[in-house]
Write a structure and sequence with these properties.
Radius of gyration: 16 Å
Order of helices and strands: EHEEHEHEEH
Number of helices: 4
Number of strands: 6
Strand content: 35-45%
Strand order of the largest sheet: 2-3-1-4-6-5
Shape: elongated
Distance between the termini: 6 Å
């Protein structure tokens, strides 16, 4: 199980770079990220090497942050891997809130980051179906 940091920000020039600069200065590595935005506001979701330190640093810098658990599922880099994962989840009646892609630096394999409303049950379900989670 991974911890994800969600940063709620104004959608303005340089905001994302301000966040990455703070993390760089603190020696915190970004392992995966996605951004979602509208005309005025956005959410930056990050998987980092030290989520608690990153949360504290960003909050001290005025950013609104939330930490939550997510799943990281290793997939083979071949046609249909994501579809097979989604079929497995659908067969288990799991709704996926959102996904984004990262990779396992140790194995070199792609990692699909998944958020669901029943994270613990889905983790057990995927393990039982033979998936490797990080």
């Amino acid at each position: 199980m991974l911890k994800q940091l969600s940063v709620f920000t104004e959608n303005s020039k340089g905001t994302f770079q301000s966040i990455t600069g703070l993390l760089e200065d603190a020696g915190i590595n970004i392992w995966g990220s996605t951004t979602n935005g509208s005309a005025e506001f956005g959410i930056i979701r990050l998987i980092v090497s030290d989520p608690e330190a990153a949360r504290q640093l960003l909050e001290q810098s005025g950013f609104l942050c939330r930490s939550n658990s997510i799943l990281g599922v290793e997939l083979f880099d071949e046609v249909g891997s994501l579809n097979h994962l989604l079929v497995s989840l659908a067969e288990s009646n799991v709704n996926v809130d959102y996904t984004y892609l990262s990779f396992n630096r140790t194995s070199g394999m792609p990692v699909m980051v998944i958020h669901t409303d029943s994270i613990w049950e889905v983790e057990e379900c995927l393990k039982a179906k033979g998936y490797s989670l990080i």
